[in-house]
Amino acid sequence: MELDERKLKILQAIIRTYLETGEPVGSRTISKYTDLNLSSATIRNEMSDLEELGYILQPHTSAGRIPSDKGYRLYVDTMLDAKDSEIQNLRDELEEKTGKIDDVLQKVARVLAANTNYATLVSGPRYQSKHVKFIQVTEVDEKNLLVVIVLDNNVVKNQMIRIDEPVEQETIVKLNFMLNTTLNGLDVLEMNLAVIQKLKEQFDSHTRVIDSILEIIGKTLIDEDDLEIYTSGATNILKYPELSDKAKAAQILDAFEEKRIFHNWLGLPEKGRTDESHDIQVYIGDETNMDSMKDCSMVTATYRVQEGVYGKIGIVGPKRMDYDKVVGTLNSLMSQLDDIFKDKN
Amino acid sequence: MELDERKLKILQAIIRTYLETGEPVGSRTISKYTDLNLSSATIRNEMSDLEELGYILQPHTSAGRIPSDKGYRLYVDTMLDAKDSEIQNLRDELEEKTGKIDDVLQKVARVLAANTNYATLVSGPRYQSKHVKFIQVTEVDEKNLLVVIVLDNNVVKNQMIRIDEPVEQETIVKLNFMLNTTLNGLDVLEMNLAVIQKLKEQFDSHTRVIDSILEIIGKTLIDEDDLEIYTSGATNILKYPELSDKAKAAQILDAFEEKRIFHNWLGLPEKGRTDESHDIQVYIGDETNMDSMKDCSMVTATYRVQEGVYGKIGIVGPKRMDYDKVVGTLNSLMSQLDDIFKDKN
DNA sequence: TGTTAGCACTCATTCGGGTGGAGTGCTAAT
DNA sequence: ATTAGCACTCCACCCGAATGAGTGCTAACA
């Protein structure tokens, strides 16, 4: 059996209708809905075929059909028109850019959630490789040294170090010089034992301080944890009856609270259709690879702050989410985000 | 009519039973439950009185009684035994103190939620007054200056400033000296125009830089927003049928997502019974002053990191939450937290 | 006078049967 | 190949009866 033109049209009609109503759709509805002018009986036959092909399924005999994951997949891959999104200019709402990128991202999540009525998440930008650009150790008072590290992506990290005995000013100056000359531009991998040994030798009287500093640098460079994820509108999922039974809702909401679960999301493989411009991906059900999301779909996009620095945006909703609108909205948003980040650099 | 001994006992029995079952409790149940050996009829009479006094209410005729807010209040104020909490040593779980206070607090929230089956929130420590202890401006590269500010509570803030033209090393040294001598120890209120004017005069060629720095300092000192609130176990509320209908649940969960709502919580007045040791407060229903919490109760405690630096811990659950256990758990936790923070200083 | 047994009454919940409607699959006619 | 018609299935809903927990009241009792 083949998926001919007509079957496609019917499948599309089924999915469209189901997206709207959230209820199983029957042959009569489709028979009226389409421009095919077919009787419900014919539709029934076709539906029977579509079911056999795995694109739709019946919750129980004598109920209408609902799209299967395979059906959604086909729909997303081949049937979305890239129609203009009717979303208003998000930019206005983002315009008061406080300069802090995390505020912007949190706001993006919020705006997106408000606009789509789905749950959203936005990951902070990830830097592909981090190098030390600048290190500075300063004495704050007799008991505290402050270590400031600037990475080549202009991210600044700092940490206090407690010291037992005061360190002379001169030593600090020397230390700074040494640190900057030896470590500058180095990746964490390149800070091998030889380099470290060399440093320690020079300051054998302050090994504890050096140790602390190296530890901080290490942490800073490999820190995976501090990858922020901003979320918004998690409770939107309660709006969709098929997700709002207690067990399912708790599972999904937990995921949004315990954002850690989404960390692996950042590494999800590309799946099916890739939107030319903004890397928009759709994951349906199990494709998300997250058990808690198995009843959801997720649309993601990637934004770039600058070359090699990117983050992701995700929208989570029921499988019957309005893919068309979401993709449109994301496209529009991404363009605007690009602009905003461009302005910044 | 007076609240005599017997009425109290009956009220207590009603509340205890209701806390367990979550369902209206009838006269017969109480008649069996108590050691009073009274018939259900007598209990009924007493209940009728208690209702008239406002301590309990009937959801509808011919249902049992449930405690009113006033009833809970009385219960919490006078009937809690300070029995030892059976909670295991939380400290073990917190022991791997990563040194970062926010990690510790997030963990506290998590442990607490797991132990109580309620939703928890923990506010980051708040500093009563902030003064500048140390400022440093450094040139990171030709286009960027880095401003590092250390407050007297050892909180470090930093921000980059873009500059159009390079600033000579000498100027920076001078600038640092000036900033530290003029601003050191000052509160934001004390940085009046005179001080600012003086600074600007000295560096009239770099007013833009000075402006940026002052702006950053200002923001740092009055920053209210960066008061972090950590939450955990929000979805626990779905476990309680009386809270898990869609509208209510969404409202409460929203509050936990949009943590901002809890900001005013930090300023809630003391209410009723104050636990001697750890400032444990119970807010019932509207007492929380948050509309979204009107069907919940909230137990809060205050922890102190050091003199004048404190934060709050809150537990949110249904009104029929197990106050006894929660207060016990909090007490135990607070002692352990105190120790942990003591170690740190 | 406080306590209790008994009784009539209320009201939420539950359960089963009946009904309507939506939908299907099959068959026969076009 | 399409369609009309029909029998059949099954969910959803409504209704009414039964259930049962609980109350308030009254009258009797110690």
Detailed description of the structure:
Two copies of one chain form a homodimer. In chain A, strands 3, 4, 8, 9, 10 and 11 form a six-stranded antiparallel sheet that branches. Chain A has three domains: 5-72, Arc Repressor Mutant, subunit A, CATH 1.10.10.10; 98-124 and 228-344, GAF domain (Beta-Lactamase, 2-Layer Sandwich); 132-222, Heat-inducible transcription repressor hrca homolog, domain 3 (Enolase-like, domain 1), CATH 3.30.390. In chain A, helix 2 crosses helix 3. Chain A is 42% helix and 19% strand. Chain A contains eleven helices and eleven strands. Chain A is an alpha+beta fold. Chains A and B meet through strand 5, strand 6, strand 7 and helix 10 of A and strand 5, strand 6, strand 7 and helix 10 of B. Chain B binds a DNA duplex (30 and 30 nucleotides) through residues 24, 26-29, 38-42, 44-45, 47-48, 58-65.
Shape of chain A: elongated
Average pLDDT taken over every residue of chain A: 82
Please state the oligomeric state of the protein chains shown: homodimer
CATH architecture of the largest domain in chain A: 2-Layer Sandwich
Question: Nutshell version of this structure?
Answer:
Two copies of one chain form a homodimer. With 345 residues, the first copy, chain A, is of the alpha+beta class. Helix content of chain A is 42%, strand content 19%.
